[in-house]
Amino acid sequence: MIQIPKGCKDVLPSQAYQWQYLEAKAREIAGAYAFKEIRTPVFEHTELFSRGVGDTTDIVNKEMYTFLDKGGRSVTLRPEGTAGVARAFLEHGLAGSALPFKAYYIISAFRYERPQAGRLREFHQFGCELYGAAGAAADAEVISLADAFLKSLGLKKVELRINSIGCKHCRARYHQALKEYFAPHIGEMCEDCRARFEKNPMRILDCKVEGCKKIAQGAPRMLDYLCDDCRAHFEQVKSLLTEAGIAYTVDASIVRGLDYYSRTVFEFVSDAAGAQGTVLGGGRYDTLLEQMDGKPVPAVGFAAGMERLLLVMEAENCMPPADTGAMCYLAGMDAPSREKAFLLAQKLRGEGISCETDLMDRSVKAQFKYADKTGARFVAVLGERELAEGAAEVKDLRTSASERVNFGELADYIKRRI
Ligand code: HAM
Looking at ligand 1, which atom is closest to the CA of residue 282? Predict the structure, then answer.
C-alpha cells in the first residue's frame, strides 16, 4: 500500500475542526489589526529563496525541496512565506500603494528536516508582514498581533523572548569580534561552521552540533555591539511592549535561522509540547527588498507554526470542542419514506439546517446507530404512518426528549431549539 511521505500529515475530517478554529482565530486577529490576506504560489524560482532566505542558512543549504521542472528551470517548494510576499510586493509595485502594506497568509511550507514531534517536512504557517514603517511602533504592533493571536487561543504558558541583532553597520563590528572569538576554536568545529566562519560568523550561533554549541556559549553578544540608532530602536520597542502590558524577556541567544533579519528579532516559546518549543518567530528585515533588487523598504513580520500550536493547545487544554454531525438525521423505513426523507432533507438544507438521510439502504436501527455515532442532534424516523399523517416524532439526541412535528414545521421546530 502506498503510504504518506515521511514528515507529512493528513488532517482527517474528525480533526479538521481544530484547524478551522485555528485558522479562524488567525483571520480574526489579523483582521483586527487591518492585515489583509495575500496568496502566493507554493513554488517559486529557487533563486528567490537562496537570495532571500540566505545561502548560509540550513534552510537553503540542506532543507529545500528543489527540482527542475519540465522546462529545465530550477524551482523550490516554499520553505517559508516571507520571500514570496516580498517578491509579490515588488512585482506588483505595491511600494506605490497605501503604506504601510499589511498582509497575512496561512500556508503550507516545506523543509527537508528530520521529522519529530512538531517538526515536519510539510508544515503550515500563519504569517504576517508589514512593509514601509521603519519605527519601533511597527515592531511593537506586529509583536502585539502575535501576542493577541496566542492569547486568543487561551494559551498561558507561551513566553516572548526578544533580541536585537543590529544593522549592517554594527553587525560588521560584531562579525569581527565573533571571528576573533572563534578563530582559536575553528579547528574543533564542524565543517558547516568553518564555512560559516568565512561567510557569516553569526550563523555559527545557530549551529545544532553539540561541540559547536558549547564553544558558542562564551561568544560575544550582539547586544553589546549595537550602534546608537539600533540601541535606541530596541529600547523603544521594549518600552512600547511594557506600556502595552506584553511581558517579554531579552534573550541574547536569539539569532533566528534566516539571514534577512536586522534589529528586532523575537520568538514565542513554550515547553508544553517537547523539544520543538518555538511556536512563532519573526523580526525586522529592513534590507530584504533591496537585496531582491527593489528599493529599500523597511519591513517586519512573523510566522507561527500551526502544527506546533496545536500541540501546545492540546498540552494546555485549549482545544475547542469537537464539531458535531448533521443537525438533523431523517431515517426512512421503506422506499417511499426514504424518498420523502430525501425531499425533506433538501428543504431543511435550504433553511440552513444541515441534514442527512440514508444513502446505503440500511435498516432503521442501523440508521439510528449512524446518526448517533456521527453526532447528529435531532433524528426523525419516517414510515407509512408518518407519510399518511404528514408528521413525525423528532427526537433530540442531546436531551432524549421527543415531540411529534408536522413536516411543514420541521425547520422552525429545529431552529427554535438550537
Ligand atoms: P521560522 O522561524 O523559520 O521563520 O518559522 C516560523 C515558525 O514555523 C517556527 O517558529 C515554527 O513554529 C514553524 N516551523 C518551522 N519549521 C517547521 C517544521 N519543519 N515543522 C513544523 N513547524 C515548523 C520563518 O519562517 C519566517 N518566514 C518568519 C517571518 C515572517 N519573519 C518575518 N516575517
Answer: 31
Task: Taking residues 364-382, report their average pLDDT.
Answer: 96
Q: What is the DSSP string of 92-153?
A: TTGGGSSSSEEEEEEEEEE-----BTTB-SEEEEEEEEEES--SHHHHHHHHHHHHHHHHHT
Distance 368 CA to ligand 1 centre (A): 46
CA 94 – ligand 1 centroid, Å: 25
Q: Is the CB of 139 under 6 A from ligand 1?
A: no
Other beta carbons within 10 angstroms of residue 72's beta carbon come to 6
Return the SS3 of 199. helix
Closest atom of ligand 1 relative to the 127 alpha carbon: 30
Digit-coded pLDDT (tens) for 98-149: 999 999 999 999 999 999 999 999 999 999 999 999 999 999 999 999 999 9
Beta strand residue intervals within 215-298, DSSP E:
249-250, 264-269, 278-284
- Give the model confidence (pLDDT) of 276-316 as tens digits: 799 999 999 999 999 999 999 999 999 999 999 999 999 99
78: Cβ–Cβ under 8 A, 6 or more apart, which residues? 40, 41, 42, 43, 44, 49, 84, 107, 109, 110
With beta carbons less than 8 A apart as the criterion, state whether 290 and 296 touch. yes
| DSSP per-residue string spanning 148-197 | HHHHHTT--S-EEEEEE---HHHHHHHHHHHHHHHGGGGGGS-HHHHHHH
Distance CA 225, CA 263 (A): 12
Q: Is 210 left (phi over 0), alpha (psi -120 to 50) or beta?
A: alpha
Q: Which atom of ligand 1 is nearest to the CA of 304?
A: 7
For residue 308 and ligand 1, the question of a CB distance below 6 A is answered with yes
Distance 26 CA to ligand 1 centre (A): 15
Question: Is 80 a pocket residue for ligand 1 (Cβ < 6 Å)?
Answer: yes
63 close to ligand 1 (CB < 6 Angstrom): no
Instruction: Compute CA distances 409 → 122, 150, 353, whole Å.
Output: 49, 44, 13
124, 280 Cβ separation under 8 angstroms: no
